[in-house]
């Protein structure tokens, strides 16, 4: 009997353990990522029992981080970064400096560690993980709000500082002090070149190429093309320009997110993001060696304290000083109160160059592992502090100096899902009376035609939550679903109801059971059956031609339209 290849076994076992421990964490009312971390410890090389291939898992984890950051970039606009730069640039720079100095103070207290290596140790404890932060914001339903924009701007600047740190460490280790300035200039030049190519060339070529694939009508090819773009740009950025894999994927998402393809691209890659992100957290858990923590328990606990204070606490205080509302500051600080992938990269580089001793690997890993485990408690603590500060902070800045969230483009509008034979007539009626509406259409050519006519349209699958989020369902007045399949209509209605419980719904139905289902969801809504409406139209015409007044005929049609629902209601009362 042939044995499974080790890579395949590692993938299957890693996902299986992530699922089992994630489910257990959820049962204990903890975030699933806590279970993923524990799963990594259980199957890692530092604990007895089952062991999987760590190198292969870390490779998959890097893919996961790239896809996760690509998805974040799809929801992030360049103008969002510009609106938060007054907060992110001074705030993130000061926070990294504070965290690095706190970590350096801890490092200087250790025997045999000089000031330079201590600064490297401090920098490793001062950089938050973008993957962890975005997952934390997503679990709290805040990935598209003000806190997320501030956090992402903050993290982008941190990542840029890490790029410079990765240049400085080898130069300092080789005694090339004279060449450090040149190395920094080269790194900045490469980064600027990459960003210029993405903004000047990528923002034209990538949407154009994906648009061609979308017009082919193949969902499979479109999904594949999105993944190729995300990982291809990330690989090219890391190979040619020295930019991190994750940061390259992020910029690819930002560029593609400016086009109308972004929302559907986010929907297509979301399942892959979640699966590979779980592998990322498993890989973090695999790095932890409990024995190394026991070898230096005090150093490990102090490293954890530096992460919580130097990143979480400093971020909160700085944001409050920058006049960000305390609750928003607490949300951002709680998401950033941890360290992750870039800290590991910096740590391994410094250890490999002989700058840091291998004994510090344990404290840095515990700082990451412990901070992630404590994130729910950190969030509650910071929110408690924020609630006490309410009314004691300076008001939000004016339009020249504060963070300004994106203004809503539509308010009290109708969302029309499907622009087929039925949707065309509905849209014509809405346009005739100049009523605000937005169309969600999965046919690329039809969507482009609508855009050419000046109709607000989103191209993509309406059953994906990203599409209704982009359509601002939380501010809509009416949802009109003209899709022919019942399960699609139900899914869209459920998503819209979750975002906006007060939204009025009308759907296209084919059976009485579908009409009853909508009536149970909302008695003020309307489910329209094609065959019934044909019959009612004929009945209305017949009644009026037989001498019945038009108002009376319309009243009869309204009664007949609801007859099936009324019968069901009466039957329920009689029972």
From TrEMBL:
Presence of keyword Transmembrane helix: yes
Main location: membrane
Subcellular location: Membrane
Keywords assigned by UniProt, alphabetized: Membrane, Transmembrane, Transmembrane helix, Transport
Membrane topology: Multi-pass membrane protein
Top-level taxonomic group: Bacteria
RCK N-terminal domain sequence ranges: 411-529
GO CC, alphabetical: membrane
Bilayer-crossing regions: 55-76, 88-109, 115-137, 149-173, 179-201, 222-255, 275-294, 301-322, 328-351, 363-382
A single BP term in Gene Ontology: potassium ion transport
Molecular function GO labels: antiporter activity
Cross-referenced Pfam families: Na_H_Exchanger (PF00999), TrkA_N (PF02254)
Family of this protein: Belongs to the monovalent cation:proton antiporter 2 (CPA2) transporter (TC 2.A.37) family.
PANTHER family reported in the protein's UniProt record: CATION_PROTON ANTIPORTER YBAL-RELATED, SODIUM/HYDROGEN EXCHANGER FAMILY/TRKA DOMAIN PROTEIN
Name of the protein: Kef-type potassium/proton antiporter, CPA2 family
Species assigned in the record: Muricoccus roseus
């Amino acid at each position: 009997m042939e044995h499974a290849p080790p890579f395949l076994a590692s993938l299957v076992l890693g996902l299986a353990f992530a699922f089992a421990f994630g489910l257990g964490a959820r049962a204990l009312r903890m975030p699933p990522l806590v279970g993923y971390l524990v799963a990594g410890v259980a199957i890692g090389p530092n604990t007895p029992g089952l062991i999987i291939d760590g190198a292969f898992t870390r490779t998959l984890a890097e893919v996961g981080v790239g896809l996760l950051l690509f998805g974040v970039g799809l929801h992030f606009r360049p103008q969002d970064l510009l609106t938060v730069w007054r907060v992110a640039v001074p705030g993130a720079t000061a926070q990294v400096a504070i965290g690095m100095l706190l970590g350096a103070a801890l490092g200087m207290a250790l025997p045999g560690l000089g000031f330079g290596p201590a600064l490297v140790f401090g920098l490793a404890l001062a950089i938050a993980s973008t993957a962890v932060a975005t997952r934390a914001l997503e679990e709290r339903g805040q990935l598209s709000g003000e806190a997320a924009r501030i956090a992402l701007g903050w993290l982008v600047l941190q990542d840029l500082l890490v790029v410079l740190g990765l240049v400085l460490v080898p130069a300092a280790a080789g005694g090339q002090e004279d060449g450090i300035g040149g190395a920094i200039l080269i790194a900045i030049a490469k980064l600027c070149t990459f960003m210029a190519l993405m903004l000047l060339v990528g923002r034209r070529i990538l949407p154009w190429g994906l648009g061609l694939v979308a017009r082919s009508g193949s969902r499979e090819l479109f999904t594949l093309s999105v993944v190729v773009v995300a990982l291809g740009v990330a690989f090219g950025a890391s190979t040619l320009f020295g930019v991190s894999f994750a940061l390259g994927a992020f910029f690819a998402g930002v560029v593609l997110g400016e086009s109308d393809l972004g929302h559907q691209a986010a929907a297509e890659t979301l399942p892959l993001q979640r699966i590979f992100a779980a592998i990322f957290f498993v890989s973090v858990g695999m790095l932890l060696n409990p024995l190394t923590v026991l070898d230096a328990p005090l150093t490990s606990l102090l490293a954890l304290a530096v992460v919580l204070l130097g990143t979480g606490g400093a971020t909160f205080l700085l944001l409050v000083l920058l006049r960000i509302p305390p609750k928003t500051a607490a949300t951002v600080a709680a998401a950033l109160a941890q360290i992750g992938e870039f800290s590991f990269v910096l740590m391994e580089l410094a250890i490999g160059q002989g700058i840091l001793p291998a004994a510090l690997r344990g404290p840095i890993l515990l700082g990451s592992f412990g901070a992630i485990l404590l994130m729910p408690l950190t969030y509650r603590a910071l929110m408690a502090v924020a609630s006490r500060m309410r009314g004691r902070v300076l008001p939000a800045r004016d339009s020249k100096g504060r963070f300004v969230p994106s203004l809503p483009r539509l308010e009290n509008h109708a969302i029309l899902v499907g622009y087929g034979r039925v949707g065309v007539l509905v849209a014509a009626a809405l346009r005739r009376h100049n009523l605000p509406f937005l169309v969600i259409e999965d046919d690329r050519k039809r969507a482009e035609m609508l855009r050419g006519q000046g109709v607000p349209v989103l191209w993509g699958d309406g059953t994906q939550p990203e599409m209704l989020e982009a359509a601002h369902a939380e501010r809509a007045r009416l949802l009109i679903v003209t899709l022919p399949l019942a399960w699609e209509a139900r899914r869209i209605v459920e998503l819209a109801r979750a975002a906006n419980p007060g939204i009025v719904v009308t759907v296209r139905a084919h059976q009485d059971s579908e009409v009853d289902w909508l009536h149970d969801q909302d008695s003020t809504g309307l489910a329209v059956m094609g065959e019934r409406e044909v019959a009612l139209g004929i009945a209305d015409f017949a009644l009026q031609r037989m001498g019945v007044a038009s108002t009376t005929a319309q009243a009869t049609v309204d009664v007949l339209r609801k007859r099936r629902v009324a019968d069901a209601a009466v039957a329920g009362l009689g029972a």
